[in-house]
Write a structure and sequence with these properties.
single chain, about 120 residues, mainly beta, five-stranded antiparallel β-sheet, elongated
């Protein structure tokens, strides 16, 4: 199943994206103006503690968890109007957050695809 997270907002300057919810993110390229930032769920990392070494690292709250056999889809609310989906391997003893849990998500700028309007 091909699924992406789309964050609506605008390119403030090349490489700087601000979501409608006010999140300041680093992206690759982009022409100033209204845009959407698309993220593949398997390119987004998730952890219980703050992530380091990524261009974008944000706290969030787990809203939904779906077990899909070998993988788990996790919907994380980043702001009242911003949500991303994270896809991780379903492994015995692996990290598997619960609904309502506070988590941290992150991704490199190169993982996002900007669609300018």
């Amino acid at each position: 199943m091909l699924f992406r997270s789309f964050l609506a907002g605008k390119i403030e300057a090349p490489g700087r994206f601000r979501t409608e919810g006010g999140l300041a993110l680093t992206c690759v390229g982009g022409t100033p103006g209204t845009a959407s930032l698309a993220l593949r769920p398997e390119r987004v990392e998730i952890a219980a503690a703050a992530l380091s070494g990524l261009d974008n690292a944000l706290p969030g709250t787990v809203e939904f968890v779906s077990y899909l056999g070998a993988q788990i889809d996790i919907h994380v609310r980043l702001s009242p109007s911003d949500r991303v989906v994270v896809q991780i391997a379903n492994r015995d003893g692996g990290f598997a957050p619960e609904v309502g849990q506070q988590v941290h998500v992150g991704w490199p700028a190169s993982a996002g695809l900007v669609f300018s309007e």
